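TA notes, week 10

Several of you asked for a full example with nothing omitted. So below is the full record: structure tokens for the whole chain, then the designed sequence directly under it. When grading your own attempts, check the secondary structure regions first.
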């Protein structure tokens, strides 16, 4: 494959990932506006808790999506897995966009919202494994960390696009219109973009690692094979993901609500602070990925673990009391720069742990389990602890889980030098 064609495939795979995560994060970005539409009237925290619970349930579907579509991508191809995942995301977003509110159809409204999130959970569960595997296999060994980091570049881009649309709507629609119908716009936008991505992904080349599976007559991918032949690697993915994903969702999807509910910023100010911090966060991902190509994956992951354990409580405590938007931005950015030690290279590290015939499933399923338990519940746990008056316990919870990830990495090999991805 020519370098130009390889680059086109990496860009194409990444662009699809952007739309997937735009659709996923649109829910989190617009929760403050649509929570009163789908749930009975109550105090703001109670409505946010209800919306966060459905956000968490969507994560519970991710292991199922990872299991089904991880096997599908291992057996039918990475490209086939990517195409299927974006189709499910399109359907879920469209359903959220057209569902009437609680005042119109009663309990059917939150029920349909739940169904849509279940569909999106299936989609994202399969997307992570397929895209992480595709980008890692498509990249050359010398720059694999750099190119694989674009999975989180596009993931964050999707979130930024959702936030940018929110900022645009906040500045063009009245608060009343945004709460009444404007929040539906991003879900229609996401569904339309997914149709474009479906066409784009149909034109991608398959990776050479997958085409070699049939020639080698490798064992067929299955959860049983993963459990019997690769239990240590699967547990490493869970341990590494636990703290990384909890920290990531704390400083991305939950940060906006934290700045409103705890710090006291307006919704607009909180959105702008989050968006600016995420923009810088996105820009540093390739640099951290490239660093791992030079010094190894393990030192970068250890840096995340050590700094995360030391700095999480001071940063979150300071954010809770801050009243300056500039200081809030700097604190959020500091936290995200620490998390970059995980986000930029976690996909390539996981892909490098597994052989090709079970790589998509091995990357996707343990990651999705850890995400369902720790990432999906992050907002709910944080809001619940705030509701019962012990919000600071959440800061220590995040610190403890980052410590778990650090211990996991200390017992891992450096996958840059001992990778199972076949050289190009």
């Amino acid at each position: 494959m020519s370098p130009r064609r390889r680059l086109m495939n990496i860009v194409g795979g990444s662009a699809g990932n952007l739309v997937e995560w735009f659709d996923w994060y649109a829910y989190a970005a617009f929760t403050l506006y649509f929570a009163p539409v789908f749930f009975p009237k109550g105090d703001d925290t109670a409505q946010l808790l209800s919306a966060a619970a459905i956000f968490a349930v969507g994560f519970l579907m991710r292991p199922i999506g990872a299991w089904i579509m991880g096997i599908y991508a291992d057996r039918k191809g990475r490209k086939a897995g990517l195409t299927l995942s974006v189709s499910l995301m399109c359907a879920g977003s469209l359903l959220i966009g057209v569902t009437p509110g609680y005042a119109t159809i009663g309990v059917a409204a939150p029920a349909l919202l739940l169904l849509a999130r279940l569909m999106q959970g299936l989609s994202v569960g399969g997307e992570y494994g397929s895209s992480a595997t595709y980008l890692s296999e498509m990249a050359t060994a010398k720059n694999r960390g750099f190119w694989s980091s674009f999975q989180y570049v596009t993931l964050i881009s999707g979130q930024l696009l959702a936030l940018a649309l929110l900022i645009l709507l906040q500045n063009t629609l009245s608060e009343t219109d945004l709460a009444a119908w404007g929040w539906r716009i991003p879900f229609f936008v996401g569904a339309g973009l997914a149709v474009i991505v479906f066409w784009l992904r149909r034109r991608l080349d398959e990776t050479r690692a997958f085409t070699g599976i049939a020639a080698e007559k490798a064992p067929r991918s299955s959860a049983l094979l993963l459990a019997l032949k690769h239990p240590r690697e699967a547990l490493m993915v869970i341990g590494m993901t636990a703290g990384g994903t909890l920290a990531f969702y704390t400083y991305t999807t939950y940060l906006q609500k934290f700045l409103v509910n705890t710090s006291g910023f307006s919704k607009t100010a909180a959105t702008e602070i989050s968006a600016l911090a995420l923009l810088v966060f996105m820009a540093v991902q390739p640099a951290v990925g490239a660093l791992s190509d030079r010094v190894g994956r393990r030192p970068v992951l250890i840096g995340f673990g050590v700094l995360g354990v030391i700095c999480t409580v001071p940063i979150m405590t300071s954010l809770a009391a801050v009243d300056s938007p500039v200081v809030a931005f700097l604190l959020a950015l500091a936290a995200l720069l620490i998390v970059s030690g995980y986000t930029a290279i976690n996909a390539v590290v996981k892909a490098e742990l597994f052989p090709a015939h079970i790589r998509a499933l091995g990357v996707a399923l343990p990651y999705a389990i850890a995400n369902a338990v720790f990432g999906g519940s992050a907002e709910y746990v944080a809001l619940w602890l705030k509701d019962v008056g012990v919000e600071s316990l959440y800061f220590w919870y995040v610190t403890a889980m980052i410590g778990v990830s650090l211990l996991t990495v200390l017992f891992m090999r450096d996958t840059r030098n001992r990778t199972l991805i076949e050289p190009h």
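The two ends are 9 Å apart (CA to CA). Use that as a sanity check on your answer.
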